[in-house]
Backbone:
């Protein structure tokens, strides 16, 4: 589980509820099932209408991806690619064929297989970059659904508020019901704002972050694969791929090379 996401959501909800309690409001006053249905149900199905059915149905799976801790270790990938470069320079490109079976990453495995098969370098780049582009497109589609939820849900919160106001204004003769009625009407606005800003928009941002992390990993693999094919000096390969890392990560990578 991604610690930042869990802490962010938990602390956010705790502070909101604590703030309500400090002002003298009971947490139960913030719970209203019709408001939940209007705000989140309406928001979800409106977002479904704005996207493909399969995208909406797969949103639960995408949601789990946002909660998953980072698994992309670019430094390890660079070390592996440099070792492949050393082996290819020493024994030839065909020597990498034995290592392909041990690779778990299908993207890198496919790229190196193309290299071992003697595919033209420009064609290798085109094929690998086409796969990367398709991957980024899928990430964009998944992110868009939660972007839509973040923008549409507050609007349905307002719809619920308007419904509550209509009901309240229809019973103006009962003065004692005006205050509670107004409070009930505003709960949907509260749900819409909280749901969008604490959950849906952060999920979309987290998906964008995860997508960027995976894209960087794939770009490192593309450049590493092409460098291996061109027979670049392993030291040059390492320096080239290290440009994708943050300064602190570059230093750690340099220390690995010194040992």
Residues:
């Amino acid at each position: 589980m991604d610690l930042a996401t869990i802490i962010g959501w938990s602390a956010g909800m705790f502070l909101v509820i604590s703030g309500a309690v400090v002002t003298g409001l009971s947490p139960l006053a913030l719970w209203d099932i019709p408001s939940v249905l209007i705000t989140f149900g309406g928001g979800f199905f409106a977002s479904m209408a704005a996207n493909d059915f399969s995208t909406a149905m797969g949103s639960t799976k995408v949601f789990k991806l946002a909660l998953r801790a980072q698994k992309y270790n670019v430094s390890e990938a660079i070390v592996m690619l440099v070792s492949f470069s050393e082996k290819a320079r020493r024994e030839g490109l065909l020597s990498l064929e034995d290592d392909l079976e041990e690779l778990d990453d299908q993207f890198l495995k496919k790229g190196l297989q193309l290299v071992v098969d003697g595919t033209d370098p420009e064609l290798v780049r085109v094929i690998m970059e086409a796969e990367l582009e398709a991957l980024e497109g899928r990430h964009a589609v998944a992110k868009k659904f939660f972007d839509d939820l973040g923008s549409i849900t507050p609007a349905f919160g307002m719809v619920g508020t308007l419904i509550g106001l209509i009901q309240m204004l229809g019973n103006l003769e009962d003065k004692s019901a005006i205050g509670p009625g107004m409070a009930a009407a505003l709960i949907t606005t509260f749900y819409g704002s909280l749901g969008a800003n604490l959950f849906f928009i952060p999920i979309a941002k987290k998906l964008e972050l995860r997508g960027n992390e995976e894209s960087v990993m794939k770009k490192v693999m593309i450049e590493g694969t092409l460098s291996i094919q061109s027979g670049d000096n392993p030291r040059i390969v390492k320096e080239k791929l290290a440009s994708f890392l943050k300064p602190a990560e570059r230093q750690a990578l340099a220390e690995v090379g010194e040992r």
Remarks:
- The mean pLDDT is 88.
- DSSP finds eleven helices and no strands in the chain.
- The radius of gyration is 26 Å.
- The chain has two domains: 1-31, 32-259.
